[in-house]
TrEMBL record:
The DHHC domain is required for palmitoyltransferase activity. The chain crosses the membrane at residues 43-62, 68-90, 163-189, 229-254. It is a multi-pass membrane protein. One of its GO terms (cellular component) is Golgi apparatus. InterPro entries: Palmitoyltrfase_DHHC, PFA4/ZDH16/20/ERF2-like. Residues 118-271 form the Palmitoyltransferase DHHC domain. This is Palmitoyltransferase. It is found in: Membrane. GO terms for molecular function: protein-cysteine S-palmitoyltransferase activity. GO terms for biological process: protein targeting to membrane. Residues 1-21 are annotated as: Disordered. Belongs to the DHHC palmitoyltransferase family. Its EC number is 2.3.1.225. The gene is ZDHHC1.
Length: 366
């Protein structure tokens, strides 16, 4: 890896040292312009899960299960909405930055004049003294106290002021979605085994001989539909729900690991990068001086999304392997499937920690 061509510190403004016409401005929170596509996807997913879950799937539960079906995931969804909105809306900036009107044009950082964006606890861009735990986020263009990472799904920095809300939004999303997934599984299975169990609402009373007629958005605004629509809704919900819960679950485990080790995401990535560079230095001494200045630490990778995706695929292949081994013991068809899946599992997915290292390495190659 040629570290001589590394990009400059991406936690710093992008037009470093250039007297370009572009004026640097800071972002206040996740609602500040520009919005991020991931942020829009997040809200679309929330709408999809809420509409399909509470509008189509829960109303198909037997009547005695309806109160629990609405209340348990409903409380989680409402709580998630509150903490998610709070995490997006909070300004995580350093207290000194918030005290001044920092939304106007910012000073342009000149690398020829200063070696680092923050020197002796003074940020040359925010032009204030900041706390020792503050880092200057290049995306938000301001110093964030207790910087953990810049979250593209919130379109806001996660720092000390909103970390608790961020973590609660992850936990509540897993709980709420997990409960609705149970409902979706029930609907999907009963649809084939005993569909009458799903038709306990009074709208189905006169339709005993019309089993292809179904309703969505019961009981408030019943809309007549056909059987494939119910099946498609439940199937799509299960697929999207499993992927989302898998990724969020991995994110939660990762943050439990960080809390256990008293690290932030940012510190963890720096640690991993240092280890990676030490390994590479051992392998092949690099005569080129690194352009990365110690206190101008590299930015957090754009997102842990791909890292989480790789981990989910890793699990998928692990399950596939387990199923395949079982089939092999049963008959020769199982052996054939095992060969196919064993080849698939030779893809470079080994462990969550190795994915993070890979993610950091990929960032270096940007
Ligand atoms: Zn700053
Ligand atoms: Zn940020």
């Amino acid at each position: 890896m040629n570290i001589c061509n590394k990009p400059p510190n991406k936690t710093a403004p992008e037009n470093l040292g250039e007297a370009g016409p572009e004026v640097q401005r800071a972002r206040r929170n996740g609602w500040s312009w520009p919005l991020h596509p991931f942020q829009i996807i997040t809200w679309l997913l929330y709408l999809f899960f809420a509409l399909v879950g509470f509008g189509i799937l829960v109303p198909l539960l037997p009547i005695h299960w309806l109160p629990a079906g609405y209340i348990c995931p409903g409380v989680c969804f409402i709580y998630h909405l509150v903490v998610h909105l709070t995490a997006v809306s909070i300004d995580p900036a350093d207290a000194k930055v918030r005290e001044k009107n920092y939304l106007g044009p910012l000073a342009t950082f000149n690398r020829n004049q200063h070696a680092h964006v923050i020197e002796n606890h003074h940020c040359h861009v925010c032009d204030v003294n900041v706390s020792a735990k503050s880092k200057h986020c290049g995306t938000c263009n301001k110093c964030v106290h207790g910087f953990d990472h810049h979250c593209k799904w919130l379109n806001n920095c996660v720092g000390k002021r909103n970390y608790w809300f961020f973590l609660n939004s992850v936990v509540s999303a897993i709980l709420g979605l997990g409960l609705l997934l149970l409902v979706a599984f029930y609907v999907f299975v009963e649809f084939f085994l005993n569909p009458t169990m799903l038709r306990s609402d009074h709208h189905y009373e006169g339709l005993k001989n019309h089993t292809d007629v179904w309703f969505v958005f019961l009981p408030a605004v019943p809309v007549e539909t056909r059987a494939p629509a119910i099946l498609f809704s439940a199937g799509t919900f299960i697929l999207l729900g499993l992927v989302t819960v898998g990724l969020l679950g991995h994110l939660l485990i990762f943050h439990i690991y960080l809390m256990w080790n008293k690290l932030t995401t940012y510190e963890y990535i720096l640690q991993q990068r240092a280890q990676q560079e030490a390994k590479e230095a051992d392998k092949q001494p690099d005569p080129c001086p690194s352009q990365v200045i110690p206190s101008q630490v590299p930015a957090v990778p754009p997102t842990l999304f791909f890292h989480h995706l790789f981990w989910a695929l890793d699990c998928l292949f692990s399950f596939a392997n387990a199923a395949v081994c079982y089939s092999r013991a049963v008959n020769r068809v199982g052996e054939l499937i095992w060969v196919v899946f064993s080849r698939a599992s030779s893809l470079p997915f080994s462990s969550p920690s190795s994915h993070i290292t890979a993610c950091v390495s990929m960032k270096e190659d940007d």
